[in-house]
Design a protein that fits this description.
With about 675 residues, the chain is of the alpha/beta class. About 40% of the residues lie in helices and about 15% in strands. It has three domains: about 230 residues, Rossmann fold (3-Layer(aba) Sandwich), CATH 3.40.50; about 140 residues, PCRA, domain 4; about 180 residues, Lambda Exonuclease, Chain A.
Amino acid sequence: ADEARSLFLVGDPMQSIYRFREAEVGLFMRTREQGIAGQALESLQLTRNFRSRAEIVAWVNDRLGRIFPEREDIAAGAVAYAESEAALDGGGRVQVLCAPDAAAEAEGLADAIERVLEEHAGEPAFRAAIIVRARSHLQEILPVLQRRRIAFRAVKLDPLTRRPLVQDLMALTRALLNPADTAAVLALLRAPFCGLRLAELHALAGDGRRLDDADALDRLQGEARMRAARVFAALDRAAHLWRRRSLRDLVEGAWHALGGPSVCTRPEVDLRDARLYFETLEQADNEGLLPDWNAFAELLDTASTEGDPPSDEVKLEVLTMHGAKGLEWDLVALPQLHRATGGGQRDLLHWLPLTPAEGGEQVLLAPLRSARESSNPPLVDFIRAEQQQREAYERQRLLYVAATRARRELILSSCLDPEKPDQAPRGSLLADLWTTTAADFRQALEQCPTGAEPAPSSATATRPDQALARVASGWQPGFAPALDWRPALPPRERPVEIEFNWAGTEARRIGTVLHRLLERIGRVGIEALDDAARKRLSSRIPVLLAAMGSAGDALQASERIVHEALEGTFNSETGRWILSGKHAQAACELALSGVVDGQLVNAVIDRTFIDEHGMRWIIDYKSGYHAGGALDDFLGEEAGRYSPQLDLYRRLFELMGETRIRTALYLPRHDRLEIVGE
């Protein structure tokens, strides 16, 4: 391929809306102009819009295009507007709504959405979305939708840490990480899976009393004592498993043991949030973040709830503008355009990343002014002004992203003070639109119906149920009924293990340990084991035998037998060939199942591989030993004894299409490979 065209990049600077994640659109523009590492890039500007109807494309070009900067400025992050061409025919609509207050706006918006949904009720695939700049902008809208029974699905509106269930799981995690964290333990005792009352919590830990006192539970009586004891018992069980189980397993196990899932008010949603928390906890544990709780909290802050489950019956979704990027709907409504977001926190250090057009990355820094200074230093004012300008540019791009999610209909909604209809709030999206759409919003305000019955205010609404929600007294985890299952085909009964049905207990232990060691060698390949690895493997022999019950003189004798067989295999040409890691499709302890002669066969094959000649080998290890003469006769008897078993193994591979198969026994104590069935 032509090296000059070996790099392919895709991006849309007009949709760069992530400055809060330290994204700088200037980096993309500079790369487009200057290339990467000396590799020049050929820029191709795409102009056709295949999503929106012609009316929406024309409105965006006319009304939004004119608010963008005329020229690009890489350092300031200013992106010039690139006009689009509609690839679809007409049939779209843009509607502007305006009301004197938020309650009237919510009613008018609900009217418009309800009307559009009714118009397209016969279209199963029709979908609509309400997209807001911030979650707080839904305060008036969602109650109106609920009161009118307009079904909607909230999509990633809540940070995960705002869910009470997740807050309870965080308290459980803190209590396991630091049992002396009194606040975390009290939070657990208050959580629904325990549910102590405030007076009971005070009796337990108020007035300086300690939770780790030996008589702490004696301060509670009756049911309260029983509930608290369950929590302390769960924490103790988890403490005994500390470092033996992952933190995710400990937290999830304790939560289930305490009955957490049984008190979920919305099981499908809550359990999905819990799963997301456990996955984030596991990620933090793997990345080593948990020693610093703040680092874990920052990771959690990036996670949002998945929202309500999708449903074909629900055609309206509610989400934020950042969450809507990359998606599209037939109808898009953008309410509360007059609202700005909350002001940023006061920084201890002012800093400004710079992306000069000539290349290189620079950062401008300035500290917070001291208490002795009455005003900011000029450098601080400069940085703040630059940041505000960049935020203004990104606000324009955010509005563009939101408006271009619409396929067929776009609704823009806002509030205006009837006494001051010529002013748009500073920092709002309406302020950005004002130069091109002020007349539309003023006209919509004049047409807004008056005298409508206001929605019930929060003061007169029904008081929410504040009863204590907690797990039932005496709750115990349930157990699923035992699985009663039988295979549809009769299983082929395997006879008692031939090798050991006549031998004693110690012989069985020798055979089991030798099989485990040969399996270990075969999995890594005998060539991969140096002298040190061989010694480590040999050192495991007495440990394995002792674990199976060998002791005293029997342990020493068995250890000697296994050690000699293992060393013989290492030094044997045959043994090294069998356990070589260079064979194709090599496997140890391979489990196979199949139907042979109408019966279900389950088999575990000690060793199998395909040699350099394309022959499939099926090898069974046998740890038996013949001390007398006539070794060949003994081996022949062994081959005859195991021939039916090896024939079953052969037929299982034949069911998978293999034809060149050889079966054999390997006796490491005699260093013999005995072919069977030929």
